[in-house]
Amino acid sequence: MNMKKFVLLTAVLLLLASCGSKDRGELVGVQGKKWHPEKPYGMELIPGGAFIMGKADDDLASIHDSPAKTVTVRSFYMDATEITNSEYRQFVNWVRDSTIRTKLAILADEVGAAPGDESGIGQFAFVDANVDEMNVYEKYMYDNYTGLGPTGHEGRKLNKKVDLIFDTSKYPDEYYAEVMDTMYIPLAESYNGQRTWDVKKFKFQYTYMDIEKAAKNRNLERKDVIIKEEVQVYPDTTVWIRDFAYSYNEPMHNDYFWHDAYGDYPVVGVTWQQAKAFCQWRTLWKNSYQKSKKGAALVNSFRLPSESEWEYAARGGLQAATYPWGGPYTKSDRGCFMANFKPVRGDYAADQALYTVEAKSYDPNDYNLYNMAGNVAEWVNASYDPSSYEYISTINPSVNDASNQRKVVRGGSWKDVAYFLQVSTRDYEYADSARSYIGFRTVQDYMGTQVTASGSGR
Question: What residue stretches are annotated with the Sulfatase-modifying factor enzyme-like domain (predicted)?
């Protein structure tokens, strides 16, 4: 009797649940918000498709590291230009300012300066916060995320409503001056009355999950595949001197990254690790804004392109092309050079450019991407193996061996001959090396599969 009552009660509850639902008892799936893809600022959508990757004609250099192979890549967004000095300075300034604010807040705490003080270092004291009301992301993003490591003040928010003061004549008190003094190179090492930032003090620290390692080693615990990285963020401006022996390039060393005249030029002097750190910061920066908008979805991670993605985008939909504009010539029908490179031995200026040019120079390819050949070579998320084309997958091929520090660079640069500008030419540099002719651009995965290009070419 009790069992009958139980069955009857269960049936009634199920009936009531069904009657109160809009799905009429059918399997309709979880109903979420309608998804509308949003093209990231400064990026172009590269529709996925198949293409012939590698050398379509003779390998004149006889390197034989890129035999022709048909592969398919998924859709993605790519920066229309190389990352510029101005854009990279936004990253550097964020790390610099966050580091300074953290040090100011810590000292204010130590000397007992209150957050409500209208003058002095108290203006920069930690904003009292209830840690219990902060989620993991807020702690991760907003607190002491500056590469300082453990400070003992985790769980307290920085006060970012007050502008930092860089004019020494306007420092609010001696405590502020004490902190700022530690951020510059020692006075004894300055010259010409100029005292610059101690760039070694500004580091970006981030963590990520090694998905490939986790997938291939199922017995590993989660903590075993969480990787922590710490990277100095300032580019190495000395590359302009070190890359060229017996050459006067001091003006580029002194001004190229810092001066507004070069703001729209591609950043150089960044290592592969720094390029990857920039991608991590860009993702956090965008998602911090998304979190401030109620109901806004977080964006996919920005990252370096795979080697196949880079070549596919560089070709601009043209099959078997030598250069992004087609080929096989480096001049237009009007006799103008199509890219910034070294067209004649010893003559860097024949193409109307001595060093780099602005990131949005020359005509873009058919995907509206600028300087996929020349200007600066570009880091990609791939390790260089001369035989990798022999064993890579034919769908979204990618080879990035953590133990192989030779990372692929593509596209050639302002100091290279035309061979390196070809869309199929591969080159490499070591991950911890910075050069005056290597920069990068970022990509972001496209959410959805309905955007594809014909594999038959144009």
Answer: 43-443
